From TrEMBL:
Record protein name field: Phenylacetate-coenzyme A ligase
Gene3D superfamilies on file: N-terminal domain of ligase-like
Protein EC: 6.2.1.30
InterPro entries assigned to the protein according to its UniProt record, in alphabetical order: AMP-dep_synth/lig_dom, ANL_N_sf, CapK_Type1_Caps_Biosynth
The keyword Ligase is annotated on this UniProt entry: yes
Any GO MF annotation of the entry: phenylacetate-CoA ligase activity
Domain of life: Bacteria
Annotated AMP-dependent synthetase/ligase domain residues: 93-288
Keyword terms: Ligase
């Protein structure tokens, strides 16, 4: 196995003298202190939050861990209070809407330098999986300047790798034709959309696609297994979010967790209840701090994602840390008769059926679930439904009601130009 390309890149960017976590942590602590000083001076939000913090007293990570967290709600209240540069220096504003209501919008701000840092990360991160012999199809938004697809295309151009930014999957026939006409070998896209494409156009996918990079949402194990096709397709995971500057970490050839963008981001895993750091190997909530963000630095930002740091060094031989694959959002669960049911548990059950292209899980009323399946066709539908019900009952052996509804895929465009993560629809909570 080759050492992740991120290692050499990070050493070049940080100028650390030794390949060690000790040297990296010393670098990160120094950059954290600079970030605190910058944010306290430039940002109205952090001027208030850090007003009682004597920055001269921050001399260790333990000191840094006493600083309050930044949350999604803080950004929703007024993103412009985070701004550290004049409005004419803001090159891109990304509006994130998680529920369809104006009150839930978050705005993330970037300068040109912020965007260049992302291009730099993408350029080296993509070398984990592609080279000049590959042709990459990006199934992510890319028409706008500074969008994730636009940045990826620019990053791949630096490595002389051909890239077509196709946009969100909304026409399977058109996408399959693009793959064939351009001899695409690698796809970058949203997990469930790439899986849908692989099932709806299985022959085209199997013939052409040798590598996949999944991004923007958590990735169920069963989805990786389905795309892997008995080793014919190598499935890489990327971890990132807009608040991070899109990129946070990417898997190396070992495909066993993300190596992180440690030169630009400092990551913590905390107990979501106490807020205290957890030991490596223990699951908790991912928290990050930006180290070089100009427009909108974020300090101890709570992501809501569940993950853990690996306790073992990566087989690729890097000194960089490895974060095991994110398990999804902590809030993406429901309570049924005192039992927590996570979306990822339904993924592992339902996505094992080759005929299920997609599904939707809805809480209709107390202790009652509605499962809607999208099938390639409705032949032998009764037998499939019976098997689905059996597996769900075996996995959740406690009392609850659920309805199973089946629809046949009509091949009409279903995907929207949206990066909203999948979730369980809780109608009870929404009505409240």
């Amino acid at each position: 196995m080759n050492v992740t390309p991120l290692e050499h890149w990070i050493i070049e960017r940080t100028h650390i003298a030794h390949k060690s976590q000790e040297a990296m942590r010393a670098y990160q602590l120094d950059e954290l202190i600079k970030t605190l000083a910058y944010a306290k001076e430039k940002s109205r939000f952090y001027q208030t939050m850090l007003k009682d913090i004597d920055l001269n007293s921050i001399v260790s990570f333990e000191d840094f861990e006493q600083i309050a967290f930044t949350t999604s709600d803080d950004i929703k209240r007024n993103a412009y209070n985070f701004a550290c540069v004049p409005s004419n220096e803001i090159e891109r504003i990304v509006t994130l809407n998680t529920s369809g209501t104006t009150g839930d919008e978050k705005r993330i701000l970037f300068t040109q330098q912020d965007l260049e840092l992302t291009i730099d990360f993408f350029s080296h991160g993509m070398r984990c999986l592609v080279d000049e012999s590959d042709k990459v199809l990006v199934l992510l938004p890319g028409s706008a300047y500074g969008s994730i697809g636009d940045l990826l295309k620019k990053a791949l151009a630096l490595s002389k790798i051909e890239c077509i930014v196709h946009g969100i999957l909304n026409d399977v026939e058109k996408t399959a034709l693009c793959i064939e006409e351009n001899n695409i070998t690698c796809i970058v896209g949203i997990p469930m959309q790439v899986l849908y494409l692989s099932k709806a156009k299985s022959e085209v996918f199997a013939k052409h696609i040798k590598k996949v990079l999944l991004s923007t949402d958590y990735v169920p194990d069963v989805l990786v297994e389905a795309l892997n096709d008995n080793g014919e397709c190598h499935v890489f995971n990327h971890y990132g979010m807009t608040e991070m500057g899109y990129g946070g970490g990417v898997e190396c050839e070992c495909l066993n967790g993300y190596h992180l963008r440690e030169n630009d981001l400092y990551f913590e895993i905390i107990d979501p209840i106490t807020g205290q750091p957890v030991e490596d190997g223990v699951y908790g909530e991912v928290v990050f701090t930006t180290l070089h963000r100009q427009a909108m630095p974020l300090i101890r930002y709570r992501t809501g994602d569940m993950a853990r740091f690996s306790t073992k060094p990566c087989a690729c031989g890097t000194f960089l840390r490895t974060m095991e694959k994110v398990l999804g959002r902590m809030e993406n669960k429901i309570d049924i008769n005192g039992h927590a049911i996570h979306l990822r548990e339904f993924d592992e059950i339902l996505l094992r059926f080759p005929r299920i292209l997609d599904y939707k899980l809805t809480v209709c009323e107390k202790n009652s679930l509605h499962v809607k399946l999208i099938l390639a066709n409705k032949e032998r539908c009764v037998a499939l439904k019976e098997e689905v019900i059996r597996r769900i009952r075996d996995c959740f052996p406690f009392e609850f009601n659920f309805r199973l509804h089946v629809e046949e895929d009509d091949h009409s465009p279903k995907m929207t130009n949206s990066m909203i993560k999948r979730k369980i629809d809780n109608n009870i909570r929404n009505k409240g």
